[in-house]
Amino acid sequence: MGQPETVRELIGAARETRRAQLPYETITGVAIVIHASLLVTFSLLQIWPMAALNVLSILTFVFARSIMKRGQLAFGLALSVGEVVIHQSLGVYYCGWGVGFQFYLLTVAPLSLMLPRVSTRIGALFAMVPVGTFAALFVLHHYADHTPAYPLPETVTLYLGLGNAISSFAILWVFIVFYRKGAEIAEDALSESAERTERLLFGILPEPIVDRLRESPGVVADSFTEATILFADLVGFTGLAQKKSATELVVMLDEVFAMFDDLVTARGLEKIKTIGDAYMCGGGIPEPTDDHAAEMARLAIEMRDALAQYAEDSGEALQIRIGLHTGPVVAGVIGKSKFAYDLWGDAVNTASRMESHGSPGRVHVSEKTALALAELDGFEIEERGVIEVKGKGQMKTYWLNAAS
């Protein structure tokens, strides 16, 4: 695994390490408290070997806790597991099965398996030691007629057995609480990341396309027999670019395009892309509609009027030139690292020509779009006549003056 390269990665790695250390540090802290209480108990019972063993256990866990805080989690856990195996083995050997020291062996086994940044194989080896010790003690007690060196009164045995059972469960419970909280944090972070990714995708690709990619990743390519394409270009923007700072220029362009975005969204149309100070959108894609020509015409008038109002309010010498054409297109998603939903076909080229051969403050439409609008009410269309269009030859075109 490579070294973190950025401050954010360093902070993330530090937080991850701290989250991994905290449950084990807490458990060693609980273990210190448990062994302190056992030290008092065995001192009162004058079982000095067990009292001395608990002193050594406390020192071991203090040391294990300190090295865990320094990031040596695996070594700290190995030391802790070793202490548990030795301590509980001697506890059962000296005091018998009934005092319940063997419960701790079954507690530390799953903790070993869940050690962060340690392979499952190594974790399993950690876990096999306490499990194997438990099995050996079970055989020793039940089949080898072992007699404890320090037989305890029944009441004391019951007290220690119950206390050790509860304490071993408490250690496991602490660990589970930490890991449950960690799992919830991870799930929340994953959910937040997924939502952020989805918002980014929806900002780049149309929602139906995102849904299709989510269900069946692969090439997205569609052919539409008819769609209406709009190209818009800001007239006077190049001159402003020479007078304004980079920040002022970008802020102004962002305000204008955000205004256009709102108009496009309100009409249920699809923004395709921006190219410098040019804006492209489409109707009847990515899902076919019957009213794409009408909706795009209404959008064109709204964009023209909105920019005129913006220029008046801001005092900027800005106008817009808009071109519309209706025809067949191919649509699809391209790119690997940066996705883009784009359109291709003669209709796209013709719409672009309508814009470039138009006039500032006017909406220039092809004959095909004009014929589609002429069948509807609410559109004021003016014939421009036949003009020479670059790459297209002679074309009859029209002005769209109003739409309702």
For the sheet with most strands, the description reads:
8 strands, mixed
Rg, rounded, reads 38 Å
| Class of secondary structure makeup | alpha+beta
- Judging from the principal axes of the Cα atoms, what is the shape? rod-shaped
Report strand %: 15-25%
- N-C termini distance: 62 Å
Helix share of residues?
55-70%
Q: Which spans have pLDDT < 50 for at least 5 consecutive residues?
A: 7-14
The average pLDDT value, as a whole number, equals 85
Instruction: Say how many strands there are.
Output: 8
Number of helices: 12
Order of helices and strands: HHHHHHHEHHEEHEEHEHEE
Provide structural commentary:
This protein has 404 residues and is an alpha+beta fold. Helix content is 61%, strand content 18%. The protein contains 12 helices and 8 strands. It has helices at 7-44, 48-69, 73-95, 103-113, 120-143, 154-204, 207-215, 237-241, 246-266, 292-314, 346-356, 367-374, and strands at residues 221-235, 270-275, 278-283, 319-334, 340-344, 363-366, 379-389, 393-403. Strands 1, 2, 3, 4, 5, 6, 7 and 8 form an 8-stranded mixed β-sheet that branches. A hairpin with a 3-residue loop joins strand 7 (379-389) and strand 8. The longest helix has 51 residues, at 154-204. It is rod-shaped and about 115 Å long. The two termini are 62 Å apart.
Q: Which SSEs are present, and which pair or pack?
A:
Blueprint: H1 7-44, H2 48-69, H3 73-95, H4 103-113, H5 120-143, H6 154-204, H7 207-215, E1 221-235, H8 237-241, H9 246-266, E2 270-275, E3 278-283, H10 292-314, E4 319-334, E5 340-344, H11 346-356, E6 363-366, H12 367-374, E7 379-389, E8 393-403
Parallel strand pairs: 4-6
Antiparallel strand pairs: 1-3, 1-4, 2-3, 4-5, 6-8, 7-8
Helix pairs in contact: 1-2, 1-6, 2-3, 3-4, 3-5, 4-5, 4-6, 9-10
